[in-house]
Amino acid sequence: MRIGILNSGGDCPGLNAVIHGVVGAATELGWEVIGFRDGFEGLLPNGPGHIKLDVDRTVGILKLGGTILGTTNKGNFAAKIGVDNVALVPVEIMDQAKATIKYLGIEALIIVGGDGSLTTALQLCNEGVPAVGVPKTIDNDLQATAMTFGFDSAVATVVDALDRLHTTADSHQRVMVVEVMGRHAGWIALWGGIGGGADIVLLPEIKFNIDNVARQVNHLYATGHRSVLIVVAEGAELEDGSLMTREQMDAERRQVKLGGIGEYVGRKVEQLTGKETRDVRLGHLQRGGSPTPLDRILGTRFGVKAVNLIREKKFGRMVSYQSYHVGDVSIEEAVNQLRLVQPDSEVVQAARSVGISFGDR
Ligand code: F6P
Which fold has domain 2-149+291-334? Predict the structure, then answer.
C-alpha cells in the first residue's frame, strides 16, 4: 500500500507532528508514504514534486514548527473566495493532479488543510480520488472539530507577548494594544486575552464601539490600574462594518490581507483618553516556532487517525476532535461551517466576570 500526504494553506505549529504520526502509523502497517511538496502544487507535473517519507526522514520533526513539506495558500488549487464563495478548481488542473496520483500508484491521499483546502479535498473525492482530511487552522474556526492543532501554540505566543508587554506597560503607565490573528473568528484573541490577563478584547463576533473602549480605559486608570492591555483580532470590524486591510485583494489567493486594526485602535484610544499608547502586531510570530505539547499530541493523534480512516476505507471523511476523543465527520459536512465565538457563551461570560470588556457596552 502506498499513500500520499500533503498540507495546504497557511502553516501552523503541529503540521510536522501530523506528518510524524502518519509516517509512524503507516510504517507499522508496512505502507509507504509519499509527501507532496508545497500543497496541492506538488501534484502537478511541473510542480515542486514529492519526497518519500519514512521513519529516517521524519525522525525528530515532531518538535519542529512549520512543515517539512512546504505549503502555500495560493496557486492553482485555491478553492475559496471569501467565506462562502466556492470556486471549483479547473478541470485541466484536476486531471493533471489525478494523473500524478495514478502514475505514482497512490492508493489514498491525506489532505491536511483548513476550510479552503478541504473544499479542494472534497472536489478530489467527488472526482473519485480516495482521500481523507485532517483539519488545520490556527484560527480554530472549523465547526466540525472542537480544536485544531496550532491554536494552542498561537495562544501561548499571545500570552507570552502579553506577559512581556504588561511589565513595560506598567513601568510607563501606558496602554498597549496587541493585534493578533483571527480572520473570521476571535478565538486566539479571546483565549490569549483571558490567559494573558488583558483588560479589553475586541473580536470579529462582538461589535465594539471605540468610545466604549476609551471609557473603559479611563475607568481602569481611575480605579488604580497602572496600565491597560487591549487585544484585538485582525478581523474585528470597525463601526461601519469595514475591515482594516494592508493591501487590496490578493489576486492570486483571492482574499484581502488583514492588518492595521491594532494601530487604529491605539491611535483612537490615545486621542480620546490622552493616555500614552503603543501598539504591536504579533502577525506571523503566532504561526512560527515549536508546537506546544498539546499541539504535538493533537497533531500526532490526528495523523494516526487519518491512517486508520484509510485502513477502514472511510474516504471522504475528516478527522475531528470532540469531547477529548479523536473521531471523524464527513468532509462535505465540515466545509463551509465556521465555528465562531458566541457572544453569549460561557467563555465570554467568564471573561466578562473577571472584568474583561469587549467594547460593546
Ligand atoms: O487563516 C489563517 C491565517 O493565519 C489568518 O489568521 C491570517 O489572516 C492569514 O492566515 C494570514 O495569511 P498569510 O500567511 O497569507 O499572511
Answer: Rossmann fold (3.40.50)
